[in-house]
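REQUEST FORM: STRUCTURE PREDICTION
Request ID: SP-0412
Submitted by: Lab K.M.
Chain count: 1
Length (residues): 456
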Amino acid sequence: MDGVPAVQQCPIAPGKTFTYRFRADLYGSSWYHAHYTIEYVLGIVGPMIIHGPENYPYDVDLGPVFIQDHYHKGFWELLEDVMSTDLGTSIGAGTSDNNLINGKNNFNCSSTNSTNPCVSNAGLSQFYFKPGKWHRLRLINAGAVGLQHFSIDGHKMDIIATDFVPCVRNTQTVAPLGIGQRMDVLVYGSGKEGESYWMRSVIQQCSGAKNPVALAVVHYPGSDQTLAPTTEAWADDLPPCQDLDASFLVPFHPSTPQPPAESYTVNIAFGPNATGHWLWTMNGVSFRGDYDAPTLLMTKAARNTSQPYPFPPYYNAYTTNPANDTTQVVMFHLNNTVPVAHPFHFHGHNMYLLSQGEGPWNGSVTSSPNPPRRDVFILPPSGHLVISYNATNPGAWPMHCHIAWHISTGLFIQTVEQTDWIQQYMSIPESLAQCCREWWDYSGHNVVSFPLCLKF
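STATUS: Completed
RESULT:
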């Protein structure tokens, strides 16, 4: 489990605490964030770096470079706009006010009507390079909507990892990052003492933004930090709102996808429900989580029935690999009927990329014996995304668009993996039951109403 309310646990009630302890079987650059409504957009978020073997040497680890679109509206105002019955208001909620690198960027406060505190020209993040040295930067797009293109004037970047997957080193001038995606890059200190350069991240045209360009400054020793750089941006010839071409994302440790034992096609659509609210659907269902009855706990509570739990349709649950088979492969074909890009994240797994592109899928898959693997791929507008994964991680795992407004309006499915193993062997910590009791007490429910969840 990885802490998603309604899927693996109840929400953490106000005033209560919950401690996550986990075995780090993957390493690299990542982030943690709240998964309750749109809380992470308002700041419950941070980088998480897990150190492991290094495939390429470098001299300086500059740590995380956190990239985020930023909103001046408050939590409830944003949420009300997203859930509006007016299509223009709902779509317009995604227009950010600013774009940040490590929490900073300048802004003209006279351009906003927000009543929240605002300081014009609050300053930029500063990075310090050493001439002749290799610097590791851990790029993380932790935004709500903004798909980004990152670059450093006058410096090329060698990509060495995507999400939790080390990759074969390749050189780029611009790095594309969908929401939730990470990219580790090595940058050579080609500048001279006394010089400074702009670092940039630009929200792409498919994402609404009033101030799309985030700036930071790269300094070399002796540079005048009172002066702005005069450097020019690289020409950006990458297609907007798409992943880097698969030929640049070759995993360092080869792995060949096996033929799938189960395959699912999921059609993605957008439209109003019976009350006029605009929702996203996957195979006609808009996800609604039951915070009182998390999927994983209800699966465990079924008690050795060897049968999938009969979840209501709004759970949007797919029971994959129900037997205790540790070799089974599952494939999902996501068909996008809407001209909007979606960065799709799958919890608990690295996905093999089998096919990705515009228009309907023609049924063919990659012939590469070592295709890209990562945990977030971008589903193109009106296009398709075909992935497979090794169903070897028992649990309940979300697969969702990482655009905050889309996940909040239903663009979410969950897979229940190895039901037999969960029911027979998985040990549920008492802390999860306690978390639910505290949540039920907070939300006004009687604990007795949920006897199954008390039997772990």
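NOTES: The longest strand covers residues 60-70.
Reviewed by: T.R.
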